[in-house]
Amino acid sequence: MSLESDFREQIRKQYATLTMSQKNIAKFVLDKPNLVALHPAKKIGEMTNTSETTVIRFCYALGYSGYSSLQMDIKKSLLTSNHQEGPVQKYHNSTINKMNKENFIEYTLKTQIDAIQQVLYELDKEIYQKAIEMIIHAEKVMVAGFMSANIPARWLSSILNTIKGNTYLYTGAMDDANYFFTEKETEWLVILISFSRHRKETLTFMKEAKLIGAKIIAITDGELSPIASEADLMIRVNAPKPEYVKGITTIFSVMEILINGVMMMDAENAQKRLKDFDKLSSRFYPFIED
Question: C-alpha distances in angstroms, 199 versus 147, 148, 223, 258?
């Protein structure tokens, strides 16, 4: 399935331009695509407390020729993709067992296993492959994550710099901003990490990066994220909430896919850099002998 034709991708790109009523319809379409595939526009208008006319205008706003065109795209997507809840996630969501003093260890580990299984079930290889290619071919990479997002951003920038080089962590400091925004002739790739509650600095930084022609990969919580519509590519992470507490394992698993992809697809360069890194580390940071 083409990234350009998927209804979710169309919503991601156009969400910021929609009216409030159209945004309500967008949320409904993302949450309940099965109902949209089955019911006419008039019924969807009733379900979303809007109208048949608003639903049709919503379709036009996404670039479709009408409601039937959107329905057809949704039906195709439901047949070829795994954006619905997987069997593991369904079981986890329906379980009546809650965390208590007796089961918190098992409950915690099972929650993390379920979340990673859900990533696997929803996996869109085309998106990850494109992201990996963008990383490999970028002259320079800037990874940014504000507040709690700085933790995964710091890890990702450090590992990418080791295996690829020319990768920087944006901390928001003035010297970083001056360096970044004055290097306009460089082909920058910006990887932005943001989950609810989204920081305004993330969106501001993204818009400034776009002005100098940087490509943007957004690692975020879905098509309705405030940074999704401006990104060239979005990696959706369906992690337990709050993401920076219960979902951090899922976020790191997604980033590890990118790391392993770069190491596989740019193996010669990655292996050379790892050998050089080991030599340098042994000189400056010797290990304790066993």
Answer: 8, 10, 17, 24
- Same-domain status, 113 and 173: no
Q: Is residue 68 located within the same domain as residue 208?
A: no
The CATH number of the domain where 75 resides is what? Answer: 1.10.10.10
Q: Measured between alpha carbons, how far is 113 from 106 in angstroms, rounded to an integer?
A: 10
Answer yes or no: do 276 and 209 share one domain: yes
| Average pLDDT along the chain, 290 residues, taken 10 residues at a time | 65 90 93 90 94 94 93 82 51 57 84 87 90 95 92 95 93 70 81 89 88 92 88 91 87 96 93 83 66
User: Are 103 and 245 in a shared domain?
Assistant: no
Let me know whether 113 and 129 are in one domain. no
Contact 69, 61 (CB under 8 A): no
Give Cα separations from 10 to 7, 103, 146, 195, 235 (angstroms).
Answer: 5, 42, 27, 20, 14
Structural domain of residue 114, as residue ranges?
A: 87-122
